[in-house]
Model the fold of this input.
Amino acid sequence: MSASEYVRDLRTPEQIRAAAAAEMQRRFGVLTWFGAFTGLYWAMVSKQQLVAATTPQALGERIESARRRR
Done:
């Protein structure tokens, strides 16, 4: 194993969550955020459709599912 496999992520949990939400927003083109109070990732798929999930991956699935139902 090389030393590069042991690089530590020095970001705070809040920074990591914010980066994950920003990546989902970039990938899907919808407003996304992490709710510190709820502990969930959220996305506004349309003006009438808000979805939530516990992980960014699950949020992506919920966004795709919501888009198929439109």
About this structure: The chain has a mean pLDDT of 93. The beta strands are 31-35, 40-46, 49-53.
